[in-house]
Design a protein that fits this description.
With 260 residues, the chain is an alpha/beta fold. The protein is built from six helices and twelve strands.
Length: 260
């Protein structure tokens, strides 16, 4: 099957030693997840910062009807508040709570996210706030312009990936246009969630042609084998050769997982 690759690139605005430490911390939490020491609640977080979706539209029920991964209202956390300040405060608070997935539709740039202007007022979340927020969301799907632009020295998606417990960020390196239908949260695609429910890995999902995977694409979030293992079978090692990092040469290896 087709398989998407992932990037593990700490923001270049940090020193060499800081970037190496970020990689070490990432591989540590990845290992803890694979061995069962790091767990996430079977919950999804839905955030709409575009000012068009309201609780009265009953988007939760429509979401439940459209996927096999989350089937009960207790598994869904949301924020669709109309006031930008209230929405951003609740969004940050929910990021610090355990969830498997975040789906967020919000304005953004390479190093920030921001709410839809309402009465001339917008509220931002900058990349330097993420460490304090300490995200506890395993996979973040960011429908936000430029958040995964790894050419930016402090790119937002990189901060999300290397802080807290986050294992994968799915984002975009350029501007995107997303339109919410009336009363319906746009981002969770039925085929994506249903593939995950049936044991597919992140890299096996064809999110869309613009999305960039930041993090480990071999991770799964449902174990159908009964072994309690989320590691793909028949692992091996592939020599990645010499890698240039901040003008210092290192020799790297990367795990390779065979897909059944």
């Amino acid at each position: 099957p087709e398989f998407s690759m992932g990037r593990l690139l700490p923001p270049s605005g940090y020193s060499f030693s800081e970037r190496v430490e970020m990689l070490e911390n990432y591989f540590d939490k990845n290992h803890r997840y694979r061995t069962g020491d790091l767990k996430f609640d079977d919950k999804v977080l839905l955030i709409s910062g575009m000012g068009k979706l309201k609780e009265t539209d009953n988007p939760i029920q429509k979401f439940l009807e459209d996927n096999n991964l989350y089937t009960d209202e207790s598994q869904i956390s949301t924020s669709f508040k109309e006031d930008p300040k209230d929405l951003m405060e609740e969004y940050k608070e929910l990021l610090g709570e355990s969830h498997e997935f975040l789906f967020v539709n919000i304005h953004g740039g390479a190093s920030l996210q921001e709410t839809e202007p309402i009465n001339g007022k917008v509220v931002d979340m900058y990349e330097d706030e993420i460490e304090e927020i300490n995200p506890k969301v395993a996979v973040q799907m960011l429908y936000s312009c430029n958040n995964a632009d790894f050419s930016n020295e402090n790119y937002f998606g990189g901060e999300m990936l290397f802080r807290g417990d986050t294992l994968v960020v799915l984002g975009h390196t350029s501007q995107i246009g997303v339109v919410e239908q009336e009363g319906e949260f746009i981002v969770p695609r039925k085929i994506m969630l249903n593939l995950l429910a049936n044991g597919a890995s992140i890299g096996e999902l064809q999110i869309d042609e613009w999305a960039t995977i930041l993090g480990d694409p071999t991770l799964r979030f449902r174990d159908l084998s009964g072994t309690g293992s989320y590691i793909m079978p028949e692992s091996g090692v592939v020599d990645m050769g010499e890698v240039m990092l901040n003008e210092e040469m290192i020799h790297g290896t990367e795990s390779r997982k065979e897909i059944n």
